[in-house]
Amino acid sequence: MQAPKNPAQPTTPAEPKRNKPRYPRQKTFASYEHLSAEAVAAFVDNELDEKAAHRARVHLVHCADCRQEVEAHRQASQRLKQAASAIHAPSALLDKLQSIAQSCPAGPTAEETPQHSPQTLLDKVDFYYRALVKHRDTTHQSARDEKH
């Protein structure tokens, strides 16, 4: 005689046991966790994607500590923006930087730049192949010039 089936037990066959992933999943921000300093900065600067920003807003509704952090970061950001508009480089410094840019000599061309000698067999093959192609291109160009 069979034992009566327990109605609380599922009648479908049990799922096969799954192995744990080899690498644990990377922890992501959940709305019940406190916002990290990076998340606060990204939230204030509107750099979070829509889903993360939504989770942060939900968390801020329930967490006074994080609301205070966000408000402090907003105030600091505004003070920095106001201070940045009042800071100016001295005109002597700007003139000096412009003169450096204008008086800087041109650097060496690609042909004048020293080439390192090839280290491996593959480097040597590549080096000689490029030299052969360059030689072929210059000889074909000079032949075309002679025809015209």
From TrEMBL:
**Any Pfam family hit:** zf-HC2
Residue ranges occupied by any Putative zinc-finger domain in the UniProt entry: 38-67
Under InterPro entries, the record lists:
Anti_sigma_zinc_sf, Znf_put
The ranges of region (Disordered) come to 1-25
Keyword entries, A-Z: Transcription, Transcription regulation
| Keyword flag Transcription regulation | yes
Q: Does the keyword Transcription apply?
A: yes
Q: What is this protein called?
A: Anti-sigma-E factor RseA
Upper classification of the source organism reads: Bacteria, Bacillati, Actinomycetota, Actinomycetes, Mycobacteriales
**Gene that this sequence comes from:** rseA
